[in-house]
Amino acid sequence: MSPFFVMSLLFGLAFSQTASLCAPSEYIIHVEKRECAYCLAINTTICAGFCMTRDSNGKKLLLKSALSQNVCTYKEMLYQTALIPGCPHHTIPYYSYPVAVSCKCGKCNTDYSDCVHEKVRTNYCTKPQK
């Protein structure tokens, strides 16, 4: 085999693995309302993983189109609704949440994604789970 073929094969394998790391991942959301007696743990999928980005340190030397900062985001999603148990009659006991069907590396869309890095919030229940 030629060295060019071997290097091309190794590069292709390395790139295909990094490109495939953005994928639906299992995630548990804990949902509770002040008026309701219980907390609900919901199993869903979110988009998570690695996307190739370009370093913006040379931003004065590069065109804006070369400064892509891609994130792992939804390609296809659907919404499901869950019923929170133990809610009084005057409270709406439903909670709608996104389910990732497929993911892609691309620009962050603020219509349905939080594109700002925040400090880590704890995802837990303060009320009993049912």
UniProtKB/TrEMBL annotation:
Gene Ontology cellular component list = cytoplasm; extracellular space
> Ranges for the Glycoprotein hormone subunit beta domain?
21-125
The cross-references to PROSITE patterns, in alphabetical order and at most eight, read:
GLYCO_HORMONE_BETA_1, GLYCO_HORMONE_BETA_2
Q: Which stretch is the leader sequence?
A: 1-16
Q: Which GO terms describe its molecular function?
A: hormone activity
Q: Which keywords accompany this UniProt record?
A: Disulfide bond, Glycoprotein, Hormone, Secreted, Signal
Sorted alphabetically, which SUPFAM superfamilies does this protein's record hold? Cystine-knot cytokines
Main location group: secreted
Q: Name one Pfam family in it.
A: Cys_knot
Q: State where the protein is found.
A: Secreted
CDD domains recorded: GHB_like
Record has Acyltransferase as a keyword: no
Q: Which GO terms describe its biological process?
A: G protein-coupled receptor signaling pathway
What family does the entry list? Belongs to the glycoprotein hormones subunit beta family.
Give the quaternary structure: Heterodimer of a common alpha chain and a unique beta chain which confers biological specificity to thyrotropin, lutropin, follitropin and gonadotropin.
Instruction: Please report the name of this protein according to its UniProt entry.
Output: Thyrotropin subunit beta
